[in-house]
Amino acid sequence: MALAQAFVFADPLAHNLKAFDCGKPVMNEFLARFAVKNMQLGLSSTWVLADDEQEKATVAAYYTLASATVFRDEIPFDHGLPGYPVPVVLLARLAIDKQYQGQRIGEKTLVTALRKSVELTNTGLPTLGLVLDVLDDDALGFYQRYEIFEPFTDDPMRLFAPMQVLAKI
Q1: Residue 87 located in a structural domain
Q2: Cα-to-chain-centroid distance, residue 152
Q3: Domain with 155 in it
Q4: Residue 79's pLDDT is what?
Q5: Is residue 1 part of a domain?
Q6: Structural domain count of the chain
């Protein structure tokens, strides 16, 4: 299987979204049932890395970004921010199919998602940083390896990274 060089928008005509299996049913179901619908509704965008040798490509990995707002007192630092909600990018989903796990595709997917967040910020969607809600302890261990995320408020399963840190990746 030869993976494509770049992530592209999820497309049910080009990608076999229903065959994706990362071992986490909630992540599989999102890609199969909700990713494209949410894109059509303008709620989020999902990008996939697929096997480009097949007509209906197998998905090796995906990530989903959305916009969100947070309150100043939730952010792990204070830069004289206003009292009203400030914009952030939400890394809503990131998953790797079981047959591709252990091949550093998770790292590639994360870096790609973080760079896409910076790109969106630089091209007209100003944001303070990126927030992600961690699914479980396995995922928390994955994100903690990169030492760029810090706990968001007092919930260790909600992480934050400032956009200025992400811009250096």
Answers
A1: yes
A2: 16
A3: 8-166
A4: 67
A5: no
A6: 1
- Pairwise CA distance, residues 60 & 48, whole Å: 7
Are the beta carbons of 16 and 57 closer than 8 angstroms?
A: yes
Q: Which amino acid is at 2?
A: A
In the chain, which residue ranges form alpha helices assigned H by DSSP?
25-29, 35-40, 105-122, 137-144, 163-166
Q: What does the pLDDT look like over 19-63, one tens digit per residue?
A: 999 999 999 999 999 999 999 999 999 999 998 777 799 999 999
CATH number, domain of 113, equals 3.40.630.30
Could you read off the pLDDT of 58-78 as tens digits, one per residue? 999 999 999 999 887 777 776
Q: Is residue 114 part of a domain?
A: yes
Length of the chain (residues) = 169
d(CA 77, CA 74): 9
Residues 6 or more apart whose Cβ sits within 8 Å of residue 49: 3, 4, 6, 7, 59, 60, 61, 62, 105, 108, 109, 112
Task: Dig out the tokens for 36 from the structure.
Answer: 């494209």
The torsion of the CA quartet 133, 135, 138, 140, rounded to 10 degrees, works out to: 10
Q: How far apart are CA 31 and CA 99, in angstroms?
A: 16
Residue 28 forms part of a structural domain: yes
